[in-house]
Amino acid sequence: MVTVNGQFPGPRIIAREGDRVIIKVVNHVQNNISIHWHGIRQLQSGWADGPAYITQCPIQTGQSYVYNYTIKGQRGTLFYHAHVSWLRSTLYGPLIILPKKNVQYPFEKPHKEVPIIFGEWFNADPEAIIAQALQTGGGPNVSDAYTINGLPGPLYNCSAKDTFKLKVKPGKTYLLRLINAALNDELFFSIANHTLTVVEADAVYVKPFITNTILIAPGQTTNVLLKTKPHFPNATFLMLARPYATGVWFMHCHLEIHTSWGLKMAWIVLDGKLPNQKVLPPPADLPKC
């Protein structure tokens, strides 16, 4: 199991809009590694984006690389994850972007902010699962459990003592920072007998709207306000994240082997004429293949 600093999910990274972020990644595992900052607009800093063999070669065992970028025009919730094969199934964590100093949220100030990260758990080595799929040409085995903040729900045998619980106070407003770090599944999220007010999606504020259920796709992030019930002290409400089960299905190729057959494309953006329209040269410590 590959993690960041021995934590699963990985440690929370907090910055403000306009901050320069400098993160040194040291690879202590046997796998090649790269880290993708999912949703960050890499303006003039494409070398820090992270997709292996696209913007950089991976960080090899024993090597390190410094990701250096500035957050411009974004505030809200994003996340980071490994971008080599299926290592992202366990290597991920929240990336929280606060507004600039002295700038308030455009909605009610929450009593507390809570990251909620959805994931998938495999009892087997995820790298072995995708390797088998590539060898056979078939689809990879599905995950054994869905997780919230790294912990499985009450439907699984292993979860009796390790289900995620969110303790709240009556009549308070909480900002839930929802992140879908699952590999392939859209998930429906809801809380029994409560409504959710959507205020942000993918680090962009949206016009608030109220709903009972949120559909969040893989790689998507959404901020919602939860107003707890004022007259139910010591009550317990179920928090639920579930995949598609019935209804209309969206069919598309999602086998990684097909990308090796050519079902992929590259988007090339050339430099512009102005200084701020040119990609900066790669850093000296960019990993070599």
TrEMBL record:
Q: Name one GO cellular component term.
A: apoplast
Q: Where in the cell is it found?
A: Secreted, Extracellular space, Apoplast
Database matches in PROSITE patterns: MULTICOPPER_OXIDASE1, MULTICOPPER_OXIDASE2
The answer to whether the entry has keyword Metal-binding is yes
Q: Which GO terms describe its molecular function?
A: copper ion binding; hydroquinone:oxygen oxidoreductase activity
Q: What EC number(s) does its UniProt record assign? A: 1.10.3.2
Alphabetized CDD domains for the sequence: CuRO_1_LCC_plant, CuRO_2_LCC_plant
Substrates-to-products reaction catalysed: 4 hydroquinone + O2 = 4 benzosemiquinone + 2 H2O
Cofactor(s) demanded? Cu cation
Q: What region holds the Plastocyanin-like domain?
A: 1-101, 113-244
Q: GO BP, one example? A: lignin catabolic process
Q: State the UniProt keywords alphabetically.
A: Apoplast, Copper, Lignin degradation, Metal-binding, Oxidoreductase, Repeat, Secreted
Keyword Oxidoreductase, does the record have it?
Answer: yes
Q: Which Pfam families match?
A: Cu-oxidase, Cu-oxidase_3
* InterPro entries noted in UniProt: Cu-oxidase-like_N, Cu-oxidase_2nd, Cu-oxidase_fam, Cu_oxidase_CS, Cu_oxidase_Cu_BS, Cupredoxin, CuRO_1_LCC, CuRO_2_LCC
Protein origin, superkingdom: Eukaryota
PANTHER family for the chain: LACCASE, MULTI-COPPER OXIDASE
Identification of the protein by name: laccase
Q: Which organism is it from?
A: Trifolium subterraneum
